[in-house]
Amino acid sequence: MLTWWHRWQRARSGDAGMGLPELLVAMMIFALVSTGLAYSLISTLSLTRDARARAVAANLAAEEIDLARDAADLFAMLDETRTVHLNGDEYTVNRTTQWVSDPGAEFTCGAGTGSGSLRYKRVNVTVTWGGMRDGVNPARSDTILTPDDHINDPTKGTILVSVLRADGTGNAGVAVTASPGVGSVISPTDSQGCTYILKVNPGTYTVTVQRAEHVNDAQLAAPTQSVVVAAGSTASVGFQLDEVATFTATMAPGAPAGTRLPTSTNFRTTFTNTYGNAAVVPFGGPGGTSQTYKLHPFTSGYAPFAGTCDLADPRAWPEDTSGPVPLVGTLPDPVAAPPGGTAAMSVPMGVVRVTPGGGRWLHATSEDPGCAVTYSFGEVLTGSGVSIALPYGSWRLQQSSSSSGTKSNISASQIVVPAPAVPERTTVAGSVVTLDPRTAVLP
């Protein structure tokens, strides 16, 4: 019987050599070994690079903390992000800061209501780098900084003012004043929308913020808030102020050419949104059927209606029926514009035509309960008459011989309802015209 040794010796002495199966097996084994070796080398290189990048990032974070500790003015040290290139890698250094008033409360610059005293400023630094592996945390370093000098003495207080844009970010460069005067210069808001009124005598102050072409969420250009300052503590006030959005409104769309709107300075358009209603005078004053409004740029937009009386709002009219079909008053779809941007919108109104019949000056007085509003259209009752646009509701039309003369009722024969009527359910009873905004809602 041949042993394995004899078989091996015979194979060595033969001329056949290694067959194709043996070659394929050898190549497969070599490929497996090479793949494992390459993966190990790549993993080692990746871990080595990551460790080196993390060491550099940790040094950058520590360096940023050292720079913060050397800051001469803690109020001037704000959030900042910068990029550093080292050893062919890009590092992003992000610094965030927060004032802390007591161990259980923290805030960026006093937004909302708060009390206590400013104790220290917390600084957080994170550093990330390009090519970070999934699941790897950035390098981080934190510290707290205490001012070298006392921010306040025990007999005085601090007012922290926060001014935010509509998107919640800080509004920089906003002028801040306090009344009565605090005896020191108040800096405009910084990039976080913050400013600090230091060493304020105890008492009640009115804080006002203002910036050109900016309005707050109540459409005020110079909003104010009252704040009470106590000795040795901090009071805070917050504002929402942003650059105006410009809305070009087509009043009474579809009205005949030459239709007049009230020229009275008390004529306003009400803009509604999820935050409430705001009655606004058009930019440049009342005029024709194209008017401009500058409003706070709410992202949800505005749904407008002309006038300020309760029944000027179509939603205030109770649901009615026309046979089986319900009649409902609805607002136009909301229209939004970004800060500094523009948008177009339509403001529906009722339209009637008034012909001359004595006086030349035309007036409209609301007949709606609880609404004591009178609009003037000027000296328009000449020639063949004039088409006028009015907010929804009931209006008594009157005429006079001068702007301040005695008013007399216009007769029903002088009031012409256009065909088709705008709105559809317009009625005339004597000198009173009722503009009903309800329309059929089909199932």
From TrEMBL:
<dbReference type="InterPro" id="IPR013784">
    <property type="entry name" value="Carb-bd-like_fold"/>
</dbReference>
<feature type="transmembrane region" description="Helical">
    <location>
        <begin position="20"/>
        <end position="42"/>
    </location>
</feature>
<keyword id="KW-0472">Membrane</keyword>
<keyword id="KW-1133">Transmembrane helix</keyword>
<protein>
    <submittedName>
        <fullName>Prepilin-type N-terminal cleavage/methylation domain-containing protein</fullName>
    </submittedName>
</protein>
<keyword id="KW-0812">Transmembrane</keyword>
<dbReference type="InterPro" id="IPR012902">
    <property type="entry name" value="N_methyl_site"/>
</dbReference>
